[in-house]
Amino acid sequence: MSEKMRLFDHDGYRQRAACICIRNEHEDEILLITSRDKTSWIIPGGGIEKNESRIEAAHRELYEEAGVRGRIIRDLGIVEDTERKRRTNVFVIHVEQEYDEWDERKSYGRQRHWYQLNEALSLLKSSKQAQFEFFQRFLLTSTNYVQLIHQIKC
Asked: How many whole angstroms separate alpha carbon 118 and alpha carbon 153?
C-alpha cells in the first residue's frame, strides 16, 4: 500500500474509522483480522484519507483489510486514544459479501476469522487493549445486550 494523505484534526489527532462486523441479527460473533505482522487478531480499521468521509473510509478499510462488504447498521461514535493520538469513528457493519481474495491478503497475507464474542473479547483484551472500548460500545448498543453478556460470561 502506498503512503496516502491521512487526515488529522485540529488537536493533531489522526482521524480513523473502524468496523465491528457481524453476519446475523443475533450479533453473537464478530469478524477479526490478523495484524500486518500476524501477531494478533484485530478489528479492521485505518486512517481517513483527505477528501474522504468517515463512512467512505470505513467501507474502504473494511474491503482492503478484511475483503468484505456490507452495510452500516450502527454508528458507535468516536473513541479517543490519547496515548497514540488517534480518534476512531467506530461502526457496526452487517457483512453481506465475503471475497476469497482482497488487497491486504495478497500484500500482507492477512487472514480473517469469525469469532464467538467470548473468544473475540479474550483476543482483544490480551493483544489489542485499545480496541477493547470498541467492543464494549458494540455490546452496550446491541438490542441483544442481555443475551450477549450471558454468552460472554459462560
From this structure: 8
pLDDT digits (tens, 9 = 90+) for 102-116: 999 999 999 999 999
Residue 153: per-residue pLDDT:
66
pTM: 0.91
Q: How many other CB atoms are there within 10 angstroms of residue 33's CB atom?
A: 24
Active site positions, annotated: 64
Shortest CA distance to 45 belongs to which of 27, 37, 33, 29?
Answer: 33
CB burial of residue 135 (10 Å; 0-12, 13-18, 19+): buried
Distance in Å from the first CA to the final CA of the chain: 41
- Please check whether residue 45 is in contact with residue 118, taking contact to mean a CB–CB distance below 8 angstroms: no
Residue 37 burial by Cβ neighbours in a 10 Å radius (0-12, 13-18, 19+): exposed
Of the candidates 11, 106, 14, 20, the one whose C-alpha atom is nearest the C-alpha of residue 70 is 20
